[in-house]
UniProtKB/TrEMBL annotation:
<feature type="domain" description="Enoyl reductase (ER)">
    <location>
        <begin position="10"/>
        <end position="317"/>
    </location>
</feature>
<dbReference type="InterPro" id="IPR020843">
    <property type="entry name" value="ER"/>
</dbReference>
<keyword id="KW-0521">NADP</keyword>
<dbReference type="InterPro" id="IPR013154">
    <property type="entry name" value="ADH-like_N"/>
</dbReference>
<protein>
    <submittedName>
        <fullName>Zinc-binding dehydrogenase</fullName>
    </submittedName>
</protein>
<dbReference type="Pfam" id="PF08240">
    <property type="entry name" value="ADH_N"/>
</dbReference>
<dbReference type="InterPro" id="IPR013149">
    <property type="entry name" value="ADH-like_C"/>
</dbReference>
<dbReference type="InterPro" id="IPR011032">
    <property type="entry name" value="GroES-like_sf"/>
</dbReference>
<dbReference type="InterPro" id="IPR051603">
    <property type="entry name" value="Zinc-ADH_QOR/CCCR"/>
</dbReference>
<dbReference type="GO" id="GO:0016491">
    <property type="term" value="F:oxidoreductase activity"/>
</dbReference>
<dbReference type="Pfam" id="PF00107">
    <property type="entry name" value="ADH_zinc_N"/>
</dbReference>
<dbReference type="InterPro" id="IPR036291">
    <property type="entry name" value="NAD(P)-bd_dom_sf"/>
</dbReference>
Length: 319
């Protein structure tokens, strides 16, 4: 089969299109014919050597959608989707024509989604779902999503709507705000950090119950915008990993800080999440993703370079 593979890290040029044997599943595994595979920033960082626990040589790729061609009888021929911390790091990932993983690591793909749409959603949607669940977002929760225009941000908006939260989106650019308002969301523009608290309080009197910073840059400004006993979830940090946290202000509000990391969850745990919210697509409660860029797997190096350069459009590789 054809696959993308790297045998050293530090340079995207290490990524090559190779011919390797089709993997053979063990008794507790499935063999999935990959129909589409999402490309995430973490896949790019993996090739660049940001994850020291990756074993080489390695086929990267965490997210996929495809068809089970070998495995338990009840799964044969089924359309499935999945993601997980093990894929592309210490076992071969989805940027290939075929993929093996535990039978418990695949979820039934919603009928409302195409393979391309399903493959684009693994990391962003499991990250958003984990953030909402662990920060206690339920019906009526006043939620601020910072960076709401990104893949994780937009996933969070949709899932929070289904849960019945009161949602406030925050973005940097007026054109991003316009698009979100057209979708029915209340939006504030991110300008000066010191202005965030007053802008949030103008919408949520007393502050937001939960703030999800998907950018990693607004943590200090978000603390004053929290309500008493508020929860602040983050998924990123500055490059040096450090930020000035107003700990006294967080303490006085009884606030909580929640780190959200999708790389903590196995494919089996992620499949459980996908099954939990996947039904919302078939019930018409969640919109299918749009504006996806499809690219041939054999041109993967070009796509990796685009994502590394900061491309805003979600890329899905097609074997």
């Amino acid at each position: 089969m054809k696959a993308l593979q790297f045998s050293k890290t530090g340079d995207l040029a290490a990524l090559q299109v190779v011919d390797v044997p089709t993997p053979t599943p063990t008794a507790d595994q499935v063999l999935v014919q990959v129909k589409a595979a999402g490309l995430n920033p973490s896949d790019v960082k993996n090739v660049l050597g940001r994850f020291p626990y990756t074993t080489l040589p390695r086929i990267p790729g965490r997210d996929f959608a495809g068809v089970v061609v070998e495995g338990p009888k009840e799964l044969l021929g089924q359309a499935v989707w999945g993601t997980g911390k093990d894929l592309g790091f210490n076992r071969d990932g989805s940027h290939a024509e075929y993929l093996t993983l535990p039978a418990s690591g695949v979820a039934h793909q919603p009928e409302a989604l195409s393979f391309v749409q399903a493959a684009s959603m693994g990391v962003p949607y499991t990250t958003a779902w984990d953030a909402l669940q662990r920060s206690g977002v339920v019906a009526g929760t006043r939620l601020l999503v910072i960076g709401a225009n990104g893949t994780v941000g937009s996933a969070t908006l949709g899932l929070a709507n289904v849960l019945g939260a009161q949602v406030l989106a925050a973005v940097r650019r007026p054109e991003q705000a316009r698009v979100l308002r057209e979708q029915g969301y209340e939006v504030i523009l991110l300008t000066q950090p010191e202005a965030l608290a007053s802008e949030v309080n103008a919408v949520f009197a007393g502050g937001a119950d939960v703030i999800f910073d998907t950018t990693g840059h607004w943590l200090p400004a978000a603390v004053p915008a929290l309500a008493v006993f508020g929860r602040l979830a983050i998924i990123a940090a500055p490059l040096d990993g450090h930020v000035q946290l107003p700990a006294l202000a967080l303490y006085r509000k009884g606030g909580s800080l929640i780190g959200v990391n999708s790389l903590l969850y196995s494919s089996t745990e992620c499949a459980r999440m996908l099954n939990q919210f996947g039904q919302y697509f078939d019930e018409g409660l969640l919109p299918a993703p749009r504006d996806l860029e499809q690219a041939p797997l054999v041109q993967g190096l070009v796509s990796y370079a685009e994502v590394n350069a900061g491309a805003s459009t979600k890329v899905v590789l097609i074997p």
